[in-house]
Amino acid sequence: MRPIDPPADGEPIDSGDQANYIYRVGRVFKRGPGLYRGRRVRVRSALGSATCGLPSGRGRLYGLFLERRNRRWHSSAC
Question: Model-level pTM?
Answer without folding.
Answer: 0.72
